[in-house]
Write a structure and sequence with these properties.
Blueprint: H1 2-21, H2 26-38, E1 47-57, E2 63-64, E3 68-77, E4 80-86, E5 93-96, E6 103-107, E7 113-120, E8 126-132, E9 137-146, E10 149-160
Antiparallel strand pairs: 1-2, 1-3, 1-10, 3-4, 4-5, 6-7, 7-8, 8-9, 9-10
Helix pairs in contact: 1-2
């Protein structure tokens, strides 16, 4: 009974991400997910996208950070999304939409875009990433340490599945 429920939840999650990636590698992703379901694997599927990001720090006279090739790794558990950006500093980060005593996370996704926002309740450090579903364009911001000070870096870029 529990196995059937887990498979139903996994199938529901599968449907959400198929809608999220709108055909970008959906067939391969669907086949690997069905194989995982059949083998009784109960871990979340990780979705990877290669992205080119550019950062700008407006408070430092629009200081441009070096563009970087990064990898987005996304997972979902229920309504919560987890995003890991693998790449060079200052782009590398991990955040999620969990709401805890230390972090205020929000999944603000819509039919047009995935939108994740996380804010540390004590420090105020915030990260927000928006990925357009149709174009895979990325925008957002993250608070980073730069030369000993916390500054907000605006992000923009493009992903390919």
């Amino acid at each position: 009974m529990a196995s059937s429920r887990n498979q139903l939840i996994s199938i529901q999650c599968l449907g959400r991400f198929i809608r999220a990636i709108e055909g970008r590698g959906a067939l391969i992703w669907l086949m690997s997910s069905l194989l995982a379901l059949g083998s009784g694997v109960s871990s979340a599927q990780t979705y990877r996208m290669s992205c080119q990001l550019e950062g700008v720090i407006p408070s430092l006279e629009d200081l441009k950070m070096p563009p970087a090739q990064v990898t987005f790794e996304m997972q979902n558990f229920g309504a919560n999304l987890f995003l890991k950006i693998i790449g060079p500093k200052p782009y590398a980060t991990f955040f999620n939409t969990l709401d805890t005593d230390k972090l205020e996370g929000r999944n603000l996704s819509s039919p047009k875009a995935l939108l994740l926002r996380s804010k540390h309740r004590i420090t105020g450090q915030e990260t927000e990433v928006r990925i357009e579903r149709q174009t895979a364009a990325v925008s957002g911001h993250m608070d980073i340490m730069h030369m000993g000070a916390m500054v907000r870096m605006e992000l923009k870029g493009k992903c390919t599945p």
